Amino acid sequence: MKTSIVGGEFKNRSLLSPKTNEVRPLSSRVRKSLMDILGNTVDNCLLLDLFAGIGSVSIEFLSRGAKSVISVEKSPKIASFLEKNLSNFNLLNRCTILNYSVERFMLNCHDIKFDIIYMDPPFSYDLDALLNSFSDFKCYHENSIFILHHFFKKKPKEQIGCWKISDSRTYSSNTITFYTPEKLSADD
Questions:
Q1: Using CA atoms, how far apart are residues 11 and 62, in angstroms rounded to an integer?
Q2: Is residue 17 within 8 Å of residue 54, measured between CB atoms?
Q3: What residue segments make up the domains of the chain, in order of their start?
Q4: Which CATH architecture fits 30-181?
Q5: Are 76 and 99 in contact (CB under 8 A)?
Q6: I need a surface site. Which of 25, 45, 133, 163 has the fewest CB within 10 A?
Q7: pLDDT tens for residues 146-180?
């Protein structure tokens, strides 16, 4: 399946992808809908892309004006495709690739406040355990948005730590759930 950027500076440019089913890039239709919903929120944002895969979401955000991205992808093979795609788009200076598990990254990230956190785990992943780990993640600010892409039959909790569902959209078997943080305390 061919994956292309759907908008912005790199509209219609194709991404490299392994010729196996090891990745499930977010479809063009869902990425376009996601970007339409976010609108100007993407401008100048700092994005955290968890389970980044080949970089379709990271590059889509950069194409539409995101300031920078941290892309976390555990698989060295898939991360190499992500790096090649960023290089082909001349975006290596705006994206940091971390070859870690998402859980390891969340445990060790302390000093960055992301504007948008996008998480796209494999549909077979233990979503409840992952979201329990995410509930302790503190790298956000009061206006941050957490976006979870998941299989439509897997319903995430209404609240994950301080994060509450603000919107949810389903496209075929894909659901995008948006969370916003409750008011932060002085300790956060």
A1: 11
A2: yes
A3: 30-181
A4: 3-Layer(aba) Sandwich (3.40)
A5: yes
A6: 133
A7: 999 999 999 899 999 999 999 999 999 999 999 99
pLDDT tens readout for residues 103-129: 999 999 988 999 999 999 988 899 899
Distance between CA atoms of residues 60 and 37, nearest Å: 14
Q: What is the rounded end-to-end Cα distance, in angstroms, of the chain? A: 43
Closest CA to 70 of 81, 85, 90, 55: 55
Tokens encoding 181? 């943080």
Strand segments (E) across the chain: 3-4, 14-15, 46-50, 68-72, 95-98, 114-119, 140-151, 159-160, 163-171, 174-181
Q: E-assigned strands of 12-94?
A: 14-15, 46-50, 68-72
